[in-house]
Write a structure and sequence with these properties.
The structure is a single chain. The protein is α/β, with parallel strands linked by helices. It folds into two domains: 124 residues, NAD(P)-binding Rossmann-like Domain (Rossmann fold), CATH 3.40.50.720; 185 residues, Dihydrodipicolinate Reductase, domain 2, CATH 3.30.360.10. It is built from eight helices and 15 strands. The strands form three sheets. A seven-stranded mixed beta sheet has the order 10-11-9-12-15-14-13. α2 links the parallel β6 and β7. The C terminus is likely disordered. Catalyzes the NADPH-dependent formation of L-aspartate-semialdehyde (L-ASA) by the reductive dephosphorylation of L-aspartyl-4-phosphate. Belongs to the aspartate-semialdehyde dehydrogenase family. It catalyses: L-aspartate 4-semialdehyde + phosphate + NADP(+) = 4-phospho-L-aspartate + NADPH + H(+).
């Protein structure tokens, strides 16, 4: 029988935290205790889990005592403040923020790509950015067969990437515009309803925004390809949930569309969705709530003999965040079922 773990969710009332709770129940993760942690303003809320009603607690000193695993989804500053305390208390933390992703001492893991990296941790394991995860799941099976030399990606990112409040703002703005009223933004910097704009994360001197550089740097780390040529353009679009990406790949050698379809049709975490007769390919409305990344419209790049084009849609709250974190936890729990491999216990933390 598998061991049962004492789990804490940091940021339990947010969009990703809510999804984490649902996934732990749906996937029957082996836990004996679930502690829900959030900011003081959310403390006291109750959330159902496995037939019980759990009360959200305010994160505070000492709250990680007797916790084996922390799933964190409360933002970078919160992770920086609290996860060292969790590790010191003996827990392993899987962090969904950007706080530790590029730390050379912290593994950055997509289970379909580099599962072995999850076991080389010092107490914290980082979950990549949502757009990075979706792209990695879709293109790594091709990279394994024929090395990718260059990636050009454009993302079409939904409101849910900015959280539950941004989703509600999009709904409110759409209704306001339909009523002939002004759409006033408060969560996002500009109106998103019936509009789109380049991702609003901070822009560097080179002209790339933070979101774009996450895709560049994180993909290189996950693939263990520090010189891989990548360029990204990230755009926020008026979609409630699920991101889409247009990806151009340049390989070292020609790569046929037929071979790519064959590989992706059996790739883990991928569903090949193509209906050329109906011009029907992956869409956010199909990806919403799905665990898999939907990939389609695979075609030869007519501008380059070694190029392929593909299109994907994926639920960035699910596979792009919560599901990826739970899959990492499942990796650790399966390995630690072997008494000789205590990957999910304080004894595995190297201090």
């Amino acid at each position: 029988m598998p061991k049962s773990y004492r789990v804490a969710i940091l940021g339990a009332t947010g969009a990703v935290g809510t999804e984490l709770i649902e996934l732990l129940e749906h996937r029957n993760f082996p836990l004996s205790q679930l502690k829900l942690l959030a900011s003081p303003r959310s403390a006291g809320q109750t959330i159902p889990f496995r037939g019980e009603s759990l009360t959200v607690e305010a994160v505070a000193d000492g709250c990680f005592k007797d916790v084996d695993l922390v799933l964190a989804s409360a933002g970078g500053s919160t992770s920086k403040q609290w996860l060292p305390q969790a590790v010191e208390a003996g827990a392993v933390a899987i962090d969904n923020s950007s706080a530790y992703r590029m730390d050379p001492q912290v593994p950055l893991v997509v289970p379909e790509v580099n599962p072995e990296a999850a076991f080389d941790h010092q107490g914290i394991i980082a979950n990549p950015n949502c757009t990075t995860i979706l792209m990695a799941v879709a293109i790594y099976p091709l990279h394994q067969v024929q090395r990718i030399r260059r990636i050009v990606v454009s993302t079409y990112q939904s409101a849910s990437g900015a959280g539950a409040r941004a989703m509600e703002e999009l709904k409110t703005q759409a209704q306001a515009i339909l009523n002939g009223e002004d759409a006033t933004p408060s969560v996002l910097p500009y109106p998103l309803a019936f509009n789109l704009f380049p991702h609003n994360s901070p822009i560097s001197e080179g002209g790339y925004c933070q979101e774009e550089m996450k895709m560049v740097n994180e993909t290189r780390k996950i693939f263990n390809e520090p010189e891989l040529a990548i360029t990204a353009t990230c755009v926020r679009v008026p979609v409630l949930r699920a991101h889409s990406e247009a990806i151009n790949l340049e390989f070292e050698q020609p790569f046929s569309r037929a071979r790519a379809c064959e590989i992706l049709s059996t790739a883990p975490g991928v569903v090949l969705q193509e209906n050329w007769q109906s011009n029907y390919f992956p869409m956010p409305m199909d990806a919403d709530g799905r665990d898999e990344v939907l990939v389609g419209r695979i075609r030869q790049d007519i501008s380059h003999p070694c190029g392929l084009e593909l299109w994907l849609s994926g639920d960035q709250i699910r596979k792009g965040a919560a599901l990826n974190a739970v899959q990492i936890a499942e990796l650790l729990s399966r390995e630690s079922g072997d008494a000789s491999s205590p990957s999910l216990s304080s004894s595995s933390v190297q201090r």
